[in-house]
Amino acid sequence: MIIPHTLDRRTDTGVNNVTLGIWLFLASEVMLFGALFSAYALLRVAAPAWPRGREVLSLPLGATNTVILLAMSALAWRARSGDAASARRLLGASTVCALAFLGVKAFEWRTEIGRGLLPSVSTFLALYFTLTGLHALHVACGVIANSWALTGTKRVGEAMTLARVRNLSLYWAFVDAVWLIIFGLMYVS
Amino acid sequence: MRLATQTLVVAGLQTRDRRADALRLRLIATTVAAIVIGAAPLLACPVCFQVEQGPVTDGIRAAVLVLVGVTVVVLAGFVRFVVRFARRAETAA
Known about the structure:
The complex is a heterodimer.
Chain A: H1 17-46, H2 53-56, H3 59-78, H4 84-114, H5 123-151, H6 153-156, H7 158-188
Chain B: H1 2-38, H2 55-92
């Protein structure tokens, strides 16, 4: 069965069902991370002392991951315009960037845990592991979604693949924006 | 005669419906009043009540501001969608 308005825009709303769905999903994600940032504000302002992120965490690794994520998001966004073949290529490259981000993050966590910087040590570290952990989970889910879009091209056709790429680029832009906030809050400030 | 009987029956039903509605309304009003009066301890925050300055109060204030800000952004997005749909409907009409 083909669900109507999966690819073509509805005449009443001006968007197709998938685009409307991804925007609603992103709205719920904003509320999820918003609640965590609210908890961050509560704990940070109420704390008698708060460490400087750059003195506890590795700023170079955080900055490297920021560059990787920005490149990944740019590639995914660029994949929106163009034919299905270039979209697949660019989405593949963005997947590689996402995997590199996860690799750097895993190395960073391993180093920190090796230094005894566990979530139980301080509120700062508990927040750091919660925020970056949830974000990394989103990156991992994005990798799965990218792979699903890349492998399903032959089955669903080029038009559907391009639609999936467009919606995935919205998701990656959101993941990127969340990381920039986390980077500013945990590493820079 | 039959019509008059039917009218009386319908009128009776309407009266009974109105009585039932009034009863229901009274029940709802009583329940709401009981909740509001009974929830007096909830009116004051047990953490920051009567504490004008302090790190916890400041923290709660900051947290509420962040959450309200996020909610406003999301709601503004929804409003934008609704306005867009309304404009499209006007154009289509």
